Amino acid sequence: MKAKKQNLIFTIIFSVLSLLYVVPLVIVLINSLKKKAFVSRYPFALPNSRSFAGISNYRGGIEKTEFFRAMGGSLIITVLSVMLIILCTSMCAWYIIRVRNKLTKLMYFLFVFSMVVPFQMVMFTLSKTADFLHLNNPVGISLVYLGFGAGLAVFMFSGFLKSIPLEIEEAAAIDGCGPVRTFFVVVVPILKPTLISVTILQTMWIWNDYLLPYLVLDRKRYSTIPIAVQYLRGGYGAVDMGAMMAVLVLSIVPILVFYFFCQKYIVKGVLAGAVKG
Fold first, then answer.
1. pTM for the predicted model, two decimal places
2. Biggest alpha carbon distance in the chain?
3. CA separation for the pair 241, 61 (Å, rounded)
4. CA gap 196, 261 in Å, rounded
5. Which helix (H) or strand (E) holds 257?
6. pLDDT digit string (tens) for 8-58?
7. Is residue 222 within 8 Å of residue 130, measured between CB atoms?
8. Which domain holds residue 99?
9. Distances (CA, A) of 31 to 20, 37, 61, 194, 252
10. Residue 129 belongs to a domain with what CATH number?
């Protein structure tokens, strides 16, 4: 009975916390349907006959921000970056775990250390370097994201790879598989839970990121959704709040759909990566 009461208490607490996280999304959705004058005055009120704007906010937001162009930019950058992170870091982690020497130990600690370095410490030098190397385009910024996303990805892949018996790879080598074929045919299928987890976490980060694209991209030629939202700001700080809320809803929908389809793999992948230290 005591355990049941504890479970009930924890269920109630976490249910309330979940609702607190959902409330901001609901407020954004409600305000996306109001006229801009009512968004600031009555942000928590439901739309009524006077405040209801219909789809005009969505239409105006799409036109003012060139939403679909920005969405294409976000999609290209996210897909390229995540593919690079998954491919390069999984191979790197496999090399670190299977080749035990001082160099691989140093590499591992450098990757882990990179996770604790604040982005603000390097953002100015990074923007100058990216501009000098002509990385101010969707392909170039994908390389920058690879550098920033490598720490967490290598850490998660390394944790999972420690739990894979070496005998499986030795058996593949006896059957005539080289290192590359062994990795893609034997190791990658076993890595599936962690691959999906890393993909979800990196996708959510890159899709919603504002600061790095703002600093690195040539904004006259390329744009992402977070950058496009700022174009709704008019003179003297005036903001079309209705259109902004509508664009935020449109930007949230793809990543929410992606997350709901894949979220069951996150805990599985994180736990799999924590099997051995």
1. 0.84
2. 75
3. 10
4. 11
5. helix 241-262
6. 888 888 888 888 888 888 888 898 888 888 888 888 888 888 888 888 889
7. no
8. 57-273
9. 17, 11, 13, 38, 14
10. 1.10.3720.10
